[in-house]
Amino acid sequence: MPRRGRRWPGALRAAAAVALPGLAGLALGHGPVAATVALGAFAVVYGEGRAYRARWKVVLFVAAALVALAGVGAGVGVLVQTGAPETWLLLVAVMTAVVAVGAFLVDALRFGAPGAFLPLLTLEIAAALPSAGVPVVAVVSWTAAGAGTAVLVSMSGVVLRPRTPERVAVAAAVSAVDTCLRAPAALGPRHEAVRALHAAWMCLHDGRIGESDHPLARTLRAAHLRLATLVAGTDEGAASETDDLRPQPPLPRPSVRYRLARAARPGSRSWTIVVRLAVAGPVAGALALAGGVGRPDWAVITAAMVLHQGPDRVLGSYRGLHRFAGTVVGLGVLAAVVWAAPTAVGVVVVVAVLLAGTEEYLVRNYGVAMVFITPLALLLGSGGVPHNFTVVARDRLLETVIGVFVAVAVLWFVLPSAHRRVLRFADARVAETVATIVHARAAGERTALPELCRDLEFDLHAATTAAIVAAHSEPAWTRDRWPEHRRLHETGYRVLTHPG
After folding, report:
1. Which alpha helices (H) appear in 414-474, and where do they start and end?
2. Which stretches are transmembrane (predicted)?
3. How many CB atoms lie within 10 A of CB 133?
4. By CB neighbour count within 10 A (0-12 exposed, 13-18 middle, 19+ buried), where does 76 fall?
């Protein structure tokens, strides 16, 4: 379980985003339904690790999306109350569409964890609340209260310590580099150090100091050069093949338009994820309905969460195991909560603690995160403590088995050669961008070179990720492909180092 830096402040912010509006709602005479603020409070998670200059935009965007999805989910939930089979199919279709669009955007923009998970969870929980007697207006109102609090809590430190996210990111990167240098032959510390360096540079770029002479940039640049000299040597045009580390710091991200346009091309990694989600969602929902469970949505969300993070079949299979094991333990946690029979205040506090645990572990270990997510989702979806725990636990366990089975089957049998196509696509993008830079240089179009270099570095990172996925999925084929991929990799970084 990787440490991933100092996460307890984010966990406290997540708990506060639930506890503050939830306890205020109880003080005003509302019951356990006040815990529904957690649906909007999910937005606070998306701000962690980002500079304040970018954080408010991300959290505000996610908060608005969560409120809208809560309204859509509750509206569909009202229809589901009629009991007609087609309404369940409508819910399955809406959930599949939402996670497919969300996963495409997250993968295309490299948004990172938790990705499309929490928006889909918001939709699923909101769809269950009308059956618990919560009106649509109440669902939307409580979600909006939590979303507004999430924005305020997320930005709470900007006045007194406006560079805290950047300082924390740089400190984590320097610590990871020091750990790596103490054991230079170990791959785990090296990969963690490269990841921490990249995260810190993106944080500084978001804060508009990545390319400046700010003390934090100087500190990070020194740590970066120490590790790069060890890994890639002193050749300025060289970069390591498995993590793209080179002496020069990473460039800022390309424009949103470029990233979306790149992902929209057929053959991209993002389209592979979308196609598999479009297959898995309806199949998991139909099997759950055929199995006679109370609600098919948990099967859909289980399949979606195994698939939405990428096309790697090996890692996806591990996520499926994590999902099942975490759900089983999470149901045990819920059993303890049911036995304790908490008051309305207790429910809000428990939900706040569970969301804090989710924030703490979601990007570190999916199985452990599910221990918190499972009781969190079932408490919120029931409008408090479930009345019939045995039925709820049985249905959720069966739906989890169905969802994991469908997801793993889709990973291995739907687009089974997708890793080949994705690697070819990624390498072709590198070759195309290199040719564009060479043409711009020959034509004297110097003003276009900085943006083209950002695009090329992005394409090189994507190609490296595609090569790693291919190596996991089909080692023999990747071994034959590797010389061509390596040639493009080296050419790309030579051009990136000397674009002019």
Report:
1. 418-442, 449-473
2. 56-80, 87-106, 126-153, 273-293, 324-354, 366-385, 397-415
3. 9
4. buried
User: Rounded to an integer, what distance in angstroms lies between the CA atom of residue 199 and that of residue 489?
Assistant: 22
Residues written for the chain = 500
Task: Report, in angstroms and rounded to the nearest whole number, the Rg of the chain calculated over CA atoms.
Answer: 23
- Tokens 């804090």 locate to 356
Helices then strands, counting H and E runs in the chain, come out as 19, 0
The dihedrals phi and psi of 100, each to the nearest 5 degrees, come to -65, -45
What value, to the nearest 5°, has the Cα angle with vertex 36 and ends 30 and 38?
130
Going by C-alpha positions, the residue among 447, 433, 442 that lies closest to residue 496 is 433
Neighbour count for residue 351 (Cβ, 10 Å): 27
Phi and psi at 207, nearest 5°, equal -85, 5
Q: Give me the pLDDT at residue 500, please.
A: 58
Query: What is the pLDDT averaged over residues 251-269?
Result: 91
Give residue 183's pLDDT.
85
Cβ-contact 179, 26 below 8 angstroms = no
- Contact between 126 and 69 (Cβ < 8 Å): yes
Question: Which residue type occupies 450?
Answer: P
Find out whether the peptide bond into 165 is cis, omega within 30 degrees of 0.
Answer: no
* pTM: predicted TM-score of the whole model, two decimal places: 0.91
Q: Which two tokens stand for residue 247?
A: 């002496």
User: Which of 467, 465, 462 has its CA nearest to residue 484?
Assistant: 467
CA distance 178 to 181: 5
Residues 402-433: pLDDT tens digits? 999 999 999 999 999 999 999 999 999 999 99
Distances (CA, A) of 5 to 10, 117, 150, 176, 196: 11, 22, 22, 9, 9
**Cβ–Cβ < 8 Å for 117, 305:** yes
